[in-house]
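Hey team,

Filing this mostly as a record. A colleague (T.K.) asked me to run one chain through the structure pipeline before their review meeting, and I want the input and output archived in the tracker in case anyone asks later how it was produced. No errors, nothing strange. Just documentation.

Input sequence:
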Amino acid sequence: MKFAQPMFAVVAAAALALLPAAASADFGPKPKVDCKKAANKDKPACKPSRGAATDDEIYNAAYWMARQGQYAQSLTVLAMAANPNDPKILNATGFATRKLGNVDAALPYYARALAINPNFVLAREYLGEAYLSKGDVASARGQLTEIEQRCGTSCTAYVHLAGHISAFVTKAGKDS
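Output structure:
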């Protein structure tokens, strides 16, 4: 019986040593799950691991950073999103990029957000503001019209953009 215990230990150790190689040879690597597909959203591989932030949490953190003027930090946080093509993530990226002074680089983010969700009036508001910063009042008014068609004249996006356009036109009239 004393001989059987050491022999068992040697056999068990050899089996354990071969197990990872056998497992990978027999079953191959696990296929990656495409978490962008709606059908996979509830799969464990698509859920954030402990300590990882969801895209909504990333968006909220980045939003408040940007609202406090921390635009570069906001962009760093937005870059951590699992779905960089989420319209909210795209819009926030455009906003922070524009506020850093790079309006031309911000425009494609708004365009992509609106291509995915044409009814995203906040993206339309920010796009209108971007047009104003380029002096393009006609395009800003075009976005104001789009906002009006989607949510009327009393929604926040309409009121804000209308105010920005009015202030821009008033200032431009005084500067001329």
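Quick notes for T.K.: Confidence is low (pLDDT under 50) at residues 3-28. The chain has eight helices and no strands.
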